[in-house]
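Q: Give me the 3D complex with L-homoserine.
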Amino acid sequence: MVEPLKVGLAGLGTVGTAVVRLIDKQRDALAARCGRPIEIVAVTARSKKKDRGIDLKKKRWLTDPFALATDPDIDVFVELMGGDGEPAKSAVEAALATGKSVVTANKALLAKHGMTLAGLAEKSGASLNFEAAVAGAIPIVKTLREGLRGNSFHRIYGILNGTCNYILTRMEQDRLSFEECLADAQRLGYAEADPTFDIDGHDAAQKLSILASLAFGLKIDARAVYVEGIRTISLADLDAASELGYRIKLLGVAVKTESGIEQRVHPTMVRKDSAIAQVMGVTNAVTIDADGIAPITLVGPGAGGLATASAVVADIADIACGTRTPPFGRPISRMSVSRKAPMQRHEGGYYIRFMARDRPGTAATIATRLAEQHISLESIVQRHTGDRPPANGRKRTPEPVPVILITYATSEDAVRKALAAIKRDRVISGEPQLIRIEKN
Ligand code: HSE
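A: Here is the predicted complex, encoded as structure tokens.
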């Protein structure tokens, strides 16, 4: 009889229990596909007593994840505890050091210690598989690492955080406030334990750093990602974007530029007719621009028990089948250091919204300051909110009016310089809103 692949599973939350169920349900299909059965032989979690609705009677229960990771009777250690520190870090390190393959969904651990872990795997010949760490069920890790191994990449961009996409979608479609939508996302279980991690862009940044490593051979470093979240996006921005033919998404973008690989996460205007703009709610999507092929967009569930379990089980199955790839698609010695690209050098179109003083000369001042920086406008919209100013302009100060500009491609440095000059000229009030436009 063929020996089963023996799995030790650490973490029995939503994803862990879904993995137990999926392996049970797909037992025969997995055995047929891999040529050997997959068996979860031992587990560990915080509470043994909790009723999880799964049968754990035939599995050994260990109290210590480290002991499970080094247990001589397991072949693979599946880490679903989360967190970039202990116990996940030591347990994964110990498993890899002793030559046991590891499957993890832990983006935070990879973003912080990915290179050390890949080094351990390289040394011991173990596998380190992490399909579930980015975009849930979407097989983006394998697509970049194996499926498109023969191509060079220009740009990878995507919706990597379901919570932010859910919030932006609900705000736009149901005309709700940011706070109301965030509360709903938390109630529905999409957000991280600390939702600031989602809405300030850090969750997407960790995922992007993993994708950038796979696509461009960069040593993972989430600190090299420029990050802005979605807190400042208002209904006024979503409406203006829509009128001008755009939608606002929190995108993670890794792109090859003349000054290196730019890695950035920020609210982004995308054309309404693009594939990425159609992705609504908690769904994730990644578009790949690679040599010689039209862009490929993968869309699917980015979080949740079953979606994540689907990727975890595929990774376990790879080990059962004997498929082994360097974790980041190439040996560490062939990877280069990630550097944070200076955003002043970023080139692209910009959406700018500010409140302008509604009096003669304002438009001329704005136009002059933009022209000084060689910024050309694709659109300009000024909206009256109510009363027109008196004809002689002397009797009272008119209310500021919203002005929305869309620029053609320019540099961020030029835009920021023009806005600073416009502010000094005192023709606008408050802080301008600036959103980068991504060509797609
Ligand atoms: N909080 C994450 C999201 C969950 O909203 O996408 C999956 O990483």
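A quick observation: DSSP finds 14 helices and 17 strands in the chain.
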